[in-house]
């Protein structure tokens, strides 16, 4: 059996026992579930995995919850007996309840591993010396609740540790309290992506100069302050920290090459003032589920590389009048699920390079500013589920580059402004769930039809009422 699709064995299902793997010529990927049903060491060894030299990927799963009634000794024997051939490149182990990993892992008898995922192995206090694996590129550790330290035990005594590792993920390691590196040793020389999520006893991260992408989630202000140890990152995602109202002072002041910043689910965050102003290379800003964040800072004035702002499910009320005057490079602005948002403000006049404007699910938005006329580069305008929006400004007729206009779920919008007929480049108009406006835009007979008749593709309700020639 071969191919890229995984071959799944669910032991003792339809009378299949793990020993029947012995006679199968397997290559590619093999996933074995319900390993609780394996009887003992002999039963596990009967699969003869150690001789299956063409297998590249192995996944071992035990049952979820309290389904495992075997002793710890039998569980350990099972994994011991499932030793793979040394050619295996990818290994995943999930819900293993032994207190230690087998010798074939601790003695690194799989030297060709490129990716390892250890998940919910809650009794294992000691990790294998993974730092000695010369080809390891990806390492995921998830809910390894008994692990307290990542230190010399993992690195061993070599001058270089994790020489090929590119991506490291530490998630929900409830008792991890120390992550140490040794001065003068070449540890993680190629690590580019680091993800640290909800390791509640970990308060400090080591300095790893090669990291370019960092994701950090948790509750400790000390942990968040460790971001200062990574001044060369180009992408940063911060989430959690639910009680934090303000960021630690100056924690982003040295990040002059940061291009992407994502702040997610910081429920109490009130301001990002002064933390953005030194981010001269920032291109993408994403704010999501920051319910107490009511405004953007004047610090936006200095972000002259910014190209996208996406704001979702925040407490945003409006933009400052001059808040956009330093971001003339902005290409995309998206605001969604901000149920207190009332106005874009006249400050949009500065967004002369804006190409995409999307406002969705902002139930309190009642109008668009007249200064929208300055958005002469705008190509796509989407407005959806803004129930209080009752009119569009006639200045929309100055959007000379507009190619697509979508209006969905705005029941109080009763007519289109006269300026729409000046939109000579508009190719696609869609109006849906706007009952009065839909009637006014009916082909040949609606009162607003003369304003839109020049548009090649028109969808009203669920019907395509005008279509351009192929």
From TrEMBL:
Database matches in Pfam families: LRR_14, LRR_R13L1-DRL21
Record domain Disease resistance R13L4/SHOC-2-like LRR: where: 325-432
Repeat as UniProt keyword: yes
Signal peptide residues on this chain, from the entry's feature table: 1-23
Keywords: Repeat, Signal
Domain R13L1/DRL21-like LRR repeat region: 18-144
UniProt-listed Gene3D superfamilies: Ribonuclease Inhibitor
PANTHER family cross-referenced by the UniProt entry: LEUCINE-RICH REPEAT-CONTAINING PROTEIN 57, OS09G0267800 PROTEIN
Record's protein name: Rx N-terminal domain-containing protein
């Amino acid at each position: 059996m071969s191919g890229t699709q995984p071959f799944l064995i669910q032991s003792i299902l339809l009378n299949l026992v793990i020993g029947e793997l012995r006679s199968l010529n397997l290559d590619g990927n093999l996933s074995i579930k319900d390993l609780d049903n394996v009887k003992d060491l002999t039963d596990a060894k009967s699969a003869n995995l150690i001789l299956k030299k063409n297998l590249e990927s192995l996944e071992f799963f035990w049952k979820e919850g309290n389904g495992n009634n075997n002793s710890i000794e039998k569980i350990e024997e099972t994994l011991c007996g499932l030793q793979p051939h040394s050619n295996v490149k990818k290994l995943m182990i999930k819900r293993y309840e032994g207190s230690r990993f087998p010798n074939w892992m601790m003695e690194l008898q799989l030297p060709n591993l490129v990716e390892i995922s250890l998940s919910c192995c809650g009794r294992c206090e000691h990790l294998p010396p993974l730092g000695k694996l010369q080809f390891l590129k990806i390492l995921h550790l998830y809910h390894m609740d008994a692990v307290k330290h990542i230190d010399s035990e993992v690195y061993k005594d070599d001058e270089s540790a994790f020489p090929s590792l590119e991506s490291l993920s530490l998630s929900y390691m409830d008792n991890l309290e120390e992550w140490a590196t040794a001065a003068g040793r070449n540890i993680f020389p190629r690590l580019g992506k680091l993800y640290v999520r909800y390791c509640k006893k970990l308060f400090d991260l080591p300095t790893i100069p090669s990291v370019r992408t960092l994701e950090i989630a948790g509750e400790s202000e000390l942990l968040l302050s460790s971001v200062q140890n990574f001044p060369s990152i180009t992408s940063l995602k911060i989430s959690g920290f639910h009680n934090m109202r303000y960021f630690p002072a100056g924690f982003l002041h040295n990040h002059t090459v940061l291009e992407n910043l994502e702040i997610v689910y910081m429920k109490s965050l009130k301001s990002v003032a002064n933390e953005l102003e030194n981010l001269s290379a920032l291109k993408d800003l994403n704010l999501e589920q920051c319910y107490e964040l009511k405004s953007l800072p004047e610090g936006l004035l200095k972000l002259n590389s910014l190209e996208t702002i996406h704001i979702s499910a925040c407490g945003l009320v409006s933009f400052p009048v001059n808040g956009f005057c330093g971001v003339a490079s902005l290409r995309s602005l998206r605001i969604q699920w901000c149920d207190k948002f009332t106005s874009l403000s006249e400050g949009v006049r500065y967004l002369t390079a804006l190409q995409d404007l999307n406002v969705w699910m902002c139930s309190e938005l009642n109008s668009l500013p007249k200064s929208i006329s300055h958005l002469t580069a705008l190509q796509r305008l989407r407005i959806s589920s803004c129930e209080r929006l009752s009119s569009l400004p006639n200045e929309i007729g100055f959007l000379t580059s507009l190619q697509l206009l979508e209006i969905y779920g705005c029941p109080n919008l009763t007519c289109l402004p006269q300026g729409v007929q000046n939109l000579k480049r508009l190719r696609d108009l869609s109006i849906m769930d706007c009952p009065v406006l839909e009637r006014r835009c009916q082909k040949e007979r609606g009162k607003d039809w003369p304003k839109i008749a020049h548009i090649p593709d028109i969808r009203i309700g669920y019907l395509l009422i005008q279509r351009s020639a192929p």
